[in-house]
Amino acid sequence: MLIFIFQTIWLFIDDLAGRGLDIMIILKFLFYIMPNLMEKVLPLTVLLASILTFGSIAENYEFAAMKASGISLQRSMRPLIIFVSILGIVVFYFANSVIPASEQKIYNLRKNIGQVKPSTAIVEGAFSDLEGTNMNMKVDRKYGDNDRFLENVIIHKKSNNSINNTVIKAKTGELVSSEGSDILKLVLRDGHYYEDIEKKKTSENKKFPFAKSSFEVYTINQDISKLDVNLEEDRAVTTDKMKNVVRLIKDADSIKKNNLSIIETFSKSIHNRAGAFAVLSKKDSVDRANFVPLSKDSLRLQKAVFDTLTIVNLYPVYQKSQILNAAKNTTTNIIASVSSKKDEMDKRYKIYNMHIVSLHKKFALALSCIVLFFVGAPLGAIIRKGGLGLPMVVAIILFLTYYFIGVFSENYAKEGNMSPIIGAWASTLIMLPLGIFLTKRATEDKGLISFGVVIDFFKNGFKKLMPSTK
User: What is the pTM of this model?
Assistant: First the structure.
C-alpha cells in the first residue's frame, strides 16, 4: 500500500503541489484514494503472502514433517482456503460499497481543489469557464510564481443573456490579487478588444454593429468571492466507478435500451430522407394456372431496355443535371449524418461497455484473490524458498502479468474490440489454469518443470527424424 501511495502522489502531484493546501487536505486526499488502490494491492498482497508463507514452510522442511505425519498439502491449505474465501466475500463488499463511495469523494475533492486558486481554474490550450464569473478564458501558457503570468490570452465575456458578445485578445497577461481580497485583477498587455453592440431597434441590429479597439494595457477587475469553495462539497456527478452492482445493472440496461431506441429512430429518419426503399406491395391474388412465364430471350430484352432507359432519361436535358446534383447532395448529407451518428453511438456504447466492465470487475476482483492464492501457495511449496528474495521477484512478475493482461483487456473491452464481460474476467481466467496446474504439481510433489520429460521429448523427436541404421 505504501508503494502504491507514493505512485499516486507522483501521478497527482500537479493537483497537490504549489496550491497552498493544508496538510489535512492532502492526507484526506490520500485517505480517500486508498480504497481505490485496494483492487491493485489486494491481489498482489495475497499472491506475495502465499508464496512467502508456503515457501518458508517448504524451506524449513515442515511440509516433509506434515507428509510424514499423514497431512497432505490440501489439508494443510484448508484453513487458509477458508480464510481466503471469506476474504473474497469481504473484497466483493468492499468493491461494491466502499470503492464507489471513495471514487465519489476523490472526484469531488479534485474538482474543488482546482478552484482553490484562480490560476488553477485556467487550463492551458483550452477554454476554461471561471465559475462565479461571466467569462471564460484560454491561454497558451502559464508560467512564473503561482502561474501568475499568461501568454496569448483570449477572453470571452458573456452578457446577461449568456451570449458571448465581447472578445478580448492579448499577447500577455498577469493575475494580480492581494491576500484576503475577493477582487482578482487581470492586467492584459498589447491586445485588441471586440464587442457586439446591441441596439434598441431591431432594424439596426440587422446591420451587425460592433466596436473595435486596441490597447497597450487593459485591466479587468473581477469579483472572485464565489470561487471560495468548500473542499467537501459534493457534486451531482456519477460515473460507472461510483456505482454499486444494483445501480450498474439498472443503468446498463437503461443505456442499452436507450441506444437501441436512438438507432431505431435514426434508421427511420434516414429511411424517410433517402426515399429509396419503397415498401413492396403485397402479392396479387392471381390464378397461378393462368400465369405464363416469359422466355429467356424476352427477359434479356426487357433487362436491356430497363438498363438503357434509366429514370433520369425520362426528364428533359436541362433537368438532368439538377436531378443528379440533388441526388448527390442528398447522398452526401446522409453519409455525413450517418458518420456523425456513428461517432455519437461509439461514445454511447463505450459508456455502456464501461458499465458492464465495472459490474463484472467487482466479482472478478473477489475471485482473483482466491485464484492468486492457489497460484502462490503451491508455487511457494515448489520453489521452497522463503524471505524477500526470489519469492518477491516471482510474485512481482506474476502480478505484472496479471495486471497488464487486465489493463489491455479492459481497454479493448471499453473500445468495443472484445466482449466487456471477457475483458473484465480475462486476467483472472488466464491465471485460473496456472493455479490448477501448480496445485496439481505441488500435490504430486513434483517440481515446476520436469526437465527429464522435456529432454525425453526432444530425444524421441530426433529419433523419429533420423533414419534408423543397422
Answer: 0.63
